[in-house]
Every structure is written in structure tokens, then in C-alpha cells.
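Internal tracking record. Fields below are filled automatically when a chain is submitted to the structure queue. Please do not edit lines marked as system-generated. If the sequence contains nonstandard residues, flag them in the REMARKS field before resubmitting.
Queue: standard
Priority: normal
Entity type: single polypeptide chain
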Amino acid sequence: MTLPSLRLKANADRRLRAGHLWIYSNEIDVAATPLAAFQAGDQAILEAAGGKPLGIVGISPNNLICARLLSRDLKHVLDKSLLVHRLNVALSLRERLFDQPCYRLVYGDSDLLPGLVVDRFFDILVVQLASATMERHKDDVLAALIQVLQPRGILLKNDSAARDAEGLERYVETAFGVVPEWVALEENGVKFEAPVVGGQKTGWFYDHRMNRARLAPYVQGKRVLDLFSYIGGWGVQAAAFGASEVFCVDGSALALDGVERNATLNGVAEQVTCIEGDVFEALKELKAAEERFDVVIADPPAFIKRKKDLKNGEAAYRRLNEQAMRLLSKDGILVSASCSMHLPEDDLQNILLSSARHLDRNIQLLERGGQGPDHPVHPAIPETRYIKSLTVRLLPNA
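SYSTEM-GENERATED OUTPUT FOLLOWS
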């Protein structure tokens, strides 16, 4: 394959040489290699300003991130062969870490497959193609996954907003075999079924696996409140770990159907109660009813999706955590999480501290958690680190 060249401006290669994979449109020497000459999904040889080749890139000419490095070796374009190799490398890590084939198999840039996410549910795969390059190589992606994993079914869950910036249509379709509406998985020894077709994202959030495992010593025999519960990742595991009562709050009827389904699956249905409705309204009603909980879990959706949302998002995190603290019993535990990449962990910690001080209470920070190792962080790309989980103890008043 003969590829065209894409040339950088002077000194624009420093970040790439340091390990980064992204190229921005203002870094391209458009006089030498106009972006308008490329189609979305094309591959090209990236060159430094002096003409030295830096590797192979996939191009999105109309995006701010106009190219992503696919390989630093000019012999390795993105094709089925490279995909098989990278999938095997990714698989070797997950098989070392987990005793069941339930995990995020591919996490985009961190697995050197930018624009590709693959979640594995035993023999069912849910795939997200977020770049024009991966979309163009959809058949190669499917062929590589089939060769490496021999799945029973593959679902393309291509309905994310990331596709909009790439000029790609959104769609959800079964691309191979048979994919049921709900699929089985296991996490921390607890069984679940996830709505991969109609649920959020890929149907499940493996990223908090390690943080949910750490619930066990805190919830034994305790009364637990799980806010933004989705299908019970936190709440059902808390019940399975021995909580006496668990209340799961979510605005989605489908999600709470999943909570009931998963509670039954694990024989803890009698310990689990679902509350459907707006979480903030539910918090007010629980406070008015003078309910108290030993452990409250607050794992909301991203309140800060873009930098311009920062002020309002921080206010929402503060409101949520302060109201959660008001429901804690004496010597209670709050697990506060954020999936907002734009909210640093230290800022979440400060929000918890200021919330506690507003209530004239003191807290102890007991544990810090991040995303599990099936969501490895690319050290040159801060955007690949987004999960924060802080476990704090609300101290009794002296």
C-alpha cells in the first residue's frame, strides 16, 4: 500500500516523540499537505517538518484532532494483521488479571487502537467504533475479533456522541452471530445481566470493578443507599457482600428492572429496594422521612462533560455529596465517585471537605480508587484517566 504524506509544522513533533498519539489540525503544514486533500478514515505517513517519517496515522480532516498515530513502524498500516496483533497483546493483560472473560478488552488509545472500544461479556462482544478510520476498517475489526476470540455474537454499539465529531452516523446493530437484549457477566464473584442493546454505553461499566470490590469490608450488616444505581453494579454487590438493606435510586425504569433482575440472580432480592425518580428529589424525600444509612454510594453520570460545564458541574457534585452526607448515620461512610475527566481528584476531595465543613462535620479520607487495569492509562494522554473514587468517613461529633 502506497500512502500519501501528512507533514507537521516545525517543532510540532515534540509531543509525539514524547509518547502522545494525537495530532491537532493547527499542527499541520497545510501548505505542503492540505488536510482538504484527505477523506475521513484515510491513512497517511506522518512526517516531521524536515520530512522524516514518524509513523502511520488515521485521518479525520474535519476534526480538531485531525489525525491519530496508529503505528510508529511504517511497515504496519492498520489492517486485520495489525488488529489481530494488538488484540492479542490486549488479551494477554486481561487474561492475566481476571479469572472470568468479563472485562474491557480494548480501551482505545491506551491499547494503541485509537477509536476502538471492546467490552467482553463471556462470549459476547460489544464494540464501539469512535473514529472514521476504525469505521472504515469495520470488517477488519470484526474479522480480527472473530479470529482471536471466537465469540458467539458481536454487537456494534455505535451510538455515542464521539461519532458526531467524526461525521459518522449513529447506529446499533448485531454484526455477527446472535446477541440477546441482556447478556451475562460476572464481577467480583457476583453475577449480573446487562442490557447491552438498550442500556447505557456498552451496557455495563467495568471501570469501577476494583472500587466496587472494596465495598465488602464497609457494608457487612449495614444499611446502604446507592445513588444513580443503574442496574445495581454497586448496590447488588453491596447486598451480595452482606449488607442488611440496600436502596437503589435511579431515574430509569429499565435500569431498576435490571437491579431487580440482578438482585434475584444473586439471591438478595429481599435485601434490595428500588426507588425510581430524580435522585436529588429522592434525597430530599429520604431526608424528610428521617431515613439514615450506614453507607451511601454516590456515583453519578458525568456532571462535567466539557470544560465550560466546570462551574455548574462542581456545584452539582457539591450538592449531591452534601445531601448524601446529611443521610449518613453516626460514623457513616460515603463512597463518592466521578467519571468526569475534567474534574481532578484533588478537586473532588476538596468538594467533599467543603461539603462536610458546611455541615460542621469532619471527615477522614480512607481510600482512593481509580479505573481498573482493564482501562489502562496512557501516561502521555491525561484524557485516558477519568475515574475517581474516594471513600470517606463522616466522623461523629465530639
